[in-house]
Amino acid sequence: MPAYYLEALTVTLGLVLLIAEAFVSTKSKAWVGIAAAVGLGGVLVLTCIAIGPDAKPDSAWAKWPLWNFYQFDSLARFYKTFALVCTILVILLSIDYRKILARFTDHPGSENGTGEYYALPVFACVGMMLLASAKDLAGAFVALELVTVTFYVMVAYMRRNVGSLEAGVKYLILGALSTGFLVYGIAWVYGATGTMSLSNLQPSISNLQSPTALLFGIALVMVGLGFKIGAVPMQVWIPDVYQGAPTPTTAFLSVGSKAAGFILMIRFLEPFLASDMTRGPVLKLLAILSIATLLFGNLAAIPQTNFKRLLAYSSIAHAGFLLLALASGAPETGSSLGSSQVVSFYLATYLIMTLGVFFVLAQVRIQRDGENITDFNGLGKTNPLLALALTVLLAALAGVPLTAGFIGKFFVFSLAMEAKLWAGVGVAFIAAAAGFYYYLNVVRAMWWADPGDRAAITLPAISKVCIALLTVATLVLGIWPQPILALLK
Amino acid sequence: MLALLVFLPILAVLAILLGAPARLTAVSASVANLALGLFAAFSWKCSCWSLSLPVLEKPALHLAFGFPDGMSVIMVLLTVIVTLAAVLSGKAPEGREKLYFGSSLLISGGALGAFAATDLFFFYAFHELALIPTFLMIGMLGRGDRKEAAWKITIYLGLGSIILLAGLVWLANLTGTYDIAGMIAAKGSVDPAAQKSIAALLLVGFGTLVSLFPFHSWAAPAYASAPAPVAMLHAGVLKKFGLYGLLRIAIPLVPEGLNAWIIPLLVLLLGNILWVGYVTISQKRLDTMLGNSSVMHMGYIFLAIAALIAFPENPLARPAAVLLMFAHGVSIALLFGLADRIERTTGSLDLSDLGGLAKSAPKLAFVFGIAAMASIGLPGLANFSGEVLVFLAAFKSYDATAGLGPVQIACILSIWGVVISAVYMLRAYRKIFQGPSVKSTEFAADLTLADRIPAVLLVLALFAVGLYPNLLLNLLK
After folding, report:
1. Lesser CB count within 10 Å: N end or C end of chain B?
2. 3-state class (DSSP) for residue A159
3. Closest approach of chain B CAs to the CA of A459, in angstroms?
4. The complex's ipTM?
């Protein structure tokens, strides 16, 4: 099956869901979410059998000009799988979150007007899947905007909640600004090289007499992408937007949107890293970005008291580690992984850990009506197993060995040392130490603090299964990371 | 086979989580492990003990266990002995048995994994696995200022581990492999400039884990508030990981780098022995006194390591360090176990609240006396053979024509530590067991049969090694 069917099917799924939701009037809208998750599950299965033009060069479709804009390699397959898994989990999270959602939409208490919330992630997913296959800057830009515009709606979805509206406005204004940078940067790159196609860029770079204009364009594009991934100095929006947005949207932003930014960054930088003229300055830029991001994300996370806001800073912090891997600029060799593989591996483990944490956070938000670290007080006494799961997930985010998070960090450190990025390595170790502090701060609240009058949490079936699966995956991948690496081959 | 030894406690934890009776499972797993450990001590040269499963291709990582030399065997022996004593002597609070015994087993499994691993990655990872339950147990089931103490040990050891990780990854990067034997074979690729920095990272990293002065202030409060099995397992076993790491990794790989830091190391270890020793004398509670004394005694083992660094061909230094690690592990575990027993029967560990306990609990007094004597270093008990070897090792490189070297000067100063430990141990013994009975000790219960089993186990180990140190030294040949 040609790979582009995947996106086509997913778009169709989204449209069908939107229409069906409009015409079928039921009290509960959970079925929309379940249908979306099942549909995306189907696409996920199809991803395994999708092929690119290289696999069947003789067939008619393999000669279409579409393949000038769209590629399908192992990285594309990996990120499509990533987008689908992430979206499915976010939709499942939304199903359990619909009580809060209903409270802040049209008619408090009724689920009217919450149906689109399950269809929108499907469209964002299409955008991410297209980004995974980006081969042309114009096409990539359209795909990225599909993701961003969908997020504008999803961030501000709780219309009667001031926090959500504030988040929506901030995201819209800063998002539009970053889009401006991105387009302007693409224009400069096009102006300097005369092509938008990423595969044709490299030969045109070598014809350049001076790379100044091109580097200016690259820097502008990096500003735009830095906004998506949450790199300093374009991270200002993250804490407020993450805190205000509905929790499933926050989870989607911190995993899906970030991964989309990184795959585009990998694709975009590939030709520039391959060319001697631009490689040095680009790596330097990445190193500076990563050091600033690591420092800001980790140090600013320390005093946080709101758990959701803490996760926002943590997402900035992880972006710093990912950028450090990119800044090493290592190609794949016989004995070590390349930068893009390490970034992909890290993102996969980050998905598992972060979404697991968000599942727990959503339930605490619903049942204890708060998102502060103190709302986790005594969870070890009231819900020992849930607290154990969250402990494992947070330990993994902090990078404790024998969890998936450690292996990701371990790869990043090895790459950075190999590349002799000593400043980056030093800062990354300080960052990891700070991370140890602020993640375990939550663990401390769970196990050592008194629950007071906080009641035990009863987990809905979907959350229970997801949390259990994600926790077990965190532990298994911490000892046996092969499955993810096999996906990357 | 060695994998079985490591995973038996971890499997027992799973069984406990799934509903098996906590204490029974813990005790039977520990007994089985003790049997396995003793068996290993006789047959460790057999290749049937090692195991290597590939985990990752790039970089090549293996879940690998094995006995590269007798040092690992001794550490494994220490772990299985102390584990059995710890699960036998602890008394879980009502309703928390799962957590209590499960965590103890997890600490033991982590320690065994770290001592048995032949792959750097798992060497480090298993130690961390053991730390997490340590933190949680102190924070949840500890006494007194438990939250404060637990947070302090978490932060100190967390930071220490990360500094250590930096040094280890750097080393692995230079040598190009994570297999410890392979790293040592490729040690030529560690250039002198890197050696000095790596040695500093490893000294601070491992040193924090072993409570090297001035990174020691986590230890006494943590041990004082930890539940008995955690204090026994951490002070007795897990803390030795840092020393084991220095002997296994740092000394073979960065000898010159360490040599550059020998004077600071000697000053710091004297800080352990003299400064912390002085602090120990002024303690008013038995638990903080024992915690500080365990920090102090690390100084002697560091002295043996310093002697090895200064004179790499020193034939005595390595056996001295290993012997003292074993002896200290057993004696401090015994002391912490007995201190818990005293608190349970009298309700206090404040030295001024106690007195005359020997009248109502003569057996307790007798065993505590043996443990205190061992800790001071009385001949016939294991610590004596360890400490004497340390002092001999420090003078092994003594050259009468050149005068006293820095190691010898440090050794002479550190012998004062023996006097210091005699002062505080005997004073504590007198205050607790002698003199007139007070209200809390008048009707105190003596050791029951169940209490005696772990105590006798540890006392036997102390005597066996004390009277016939070759039992362990032969393993090191």
Report:
1. C
2. coil
3. 19
4. 0.81
